[in-house]
Write a structure and sequence with these properties.
The protein has helices at about 15-20, 35-45, 60-70, 85, 90-95, 110-120, 150-160, 170-180, 185, 215-225, 235-245, 250-265, 290-300, 325-340, and strands at about 1-5, 50-55, 75-80, 100-105, 130-135, 165-170, 190-195, 205-210, 270, 280-285, 305, 305-310, 315. It is α/β, with parallel strands linked by helices.
């Protein structure tokens, strides 16, 4: 099976398993796991922050970040497609008493004017706007990268209104690889940023929150409260360290695979795709003659898995565990099944 459902389906490489096997470990709730500490230092260094914190998942990373920069009743401005709004099971309301204010961006990306328009006047009837949350790359928009100047313009608007800035960097590695911008430049305007180890980087679990020391100390307590304190977590951190050294440099290959797939899809009559929006490892396209579910079923029966992303929208995601040869096999199958007779 060629699994293009998500970049989360990767399994640890042999070298990664070896690094996990050999990891030096301790009790991380005591702060005594040397491998976790090394990973946190390395991510802080990479993102240009004072400190960092290893957490079990990206969802927990988002929820901890929001929790430490808000009070209950505050409002968060984000794009309508945001993971926090769509795929976190209502956690921001449940865990932190937050209200989300989703706004329609420009093809899935926020611009300063969207943020400006969403900020509430300071009157007691309105929820206090507290945070602007940005997702880079923006998953639902097609893995599109926020250009650095757009990030800086959004940050300027947020700062003018005394708002906090939060970056969901589940795929920040992809953004950096695609635009050749260091991760720390993208992260610089944000109070808190987190990055995933378990998507493009191919580790089995874990994300890392980066920010100034006082916020990371608060995040540590919140992680405990949310049940995310782990003990000999160095086994997992070792996978992350390995991924940074050995997998991160190959990330652009996932983008080349996505390009190939996107160009194939573009040439097939039943499909519509905007090639300009395929910048990283995500390929979103529409089917005009059928439902997404039926296209998914047809392809799955022949050995290729995609994700239905709407009634007529599909998503294919490339990752380390599909090779360019696998993508060519999938492309051939698409041409055979959906090409003009
Ligand atoms: C996957 C993802 C998350 C959540 O990460 P998990 O590790 O699956 O909890 C958050 N934000 C974005 C943009 C994601 O793609």
């Amino acid at each position: 099976m060629i699994d293009l459902r998500s970049d989360t389906v990767t399994t640890p490489s042999d070298g990664m398993r070896q690094a996990m096997y050999e990891a030096e470990v301790g009790d991380d709730v005591y702060g005594e796991d040397p491998t976790v500490n090394r990973l946190q230092e390395r991510i802080a260094d990479r993102l240009g922050t004072e400190a960092a914190l290893f957490v079990p998942s990206g969802t927990m990373a988002n929820q901890i970040c929001l929790h430490v920069i808000t009070d209950p009743g505050d409002e968060i401005v984000l794009e309508r497609g945001a993971h926090i709004f769509n795929y976190e099971s209502g956690a921001a309301g449940l865990l932190s008493g937050l209200q989300l204010h989703p706004v329609e961006g420009d093809q899935g990306l926020l611009a300063p004017e969207h943020v400006e328009a969403a900020i509430r006047p300071e009157m007691e009837v309105f929820p206090p706007t507290r945070v602007v949350s940005v997702e880079n790359t923006a998953n639902q928009a097609g893995g599109v990268v926020y250009p650095l100047d757009r990030i800086e313009a959004i940050a300027e608007t947020a700062r003018e209104h005394d708002l906090h800035l939060h970056l969901d960097g589940a795929r920040l590695w992809n953004a950096s690889a695609a635009h050749d911008v260091p991760e720390q430049d993208f992260a610089a305007p944000f109070d808190l940023t987190w990055v995933a180890l378990s998507k493009g980087l191919g580790a089995p679990a874990g994300s890392v929150i980066a920010g100034p020391k006082p916020l990371i100390e608060d995040a540590r307590r919140t992680r405990k409260r949310f049940g995310g304190g782990m003990r000999q977590a160095g086994i997992l951190a070792a996978a992350g360290l390995y991924a940074l050294t050995h997998h991160r440099p190959h990330l652009h290959e996932d983008h080349e695979k996505a390009q190939h797939l996107a160009e194939t899809i573009d040439a097939l009559p039943p499909f519509e795709i905007d090639l300009d929006r395929v910048e990283t490892n995500i390929v979103i396209f529409k089917v005009t003659t059928d439902t997404a579910a039926s296209v998914v079923d047809t392809l799955e029966a022949k050995g290729v898995q995609l994700t239905p992303f709407g009634p007529t929208t599909l998503r294919a995601t490339t990752h380390r565990d599909v090779s360019m040869d696998d993508v060519e096999t999938a492309a051939t199958l698409l041409r055979k099944t959906f090409g003009a007779a």
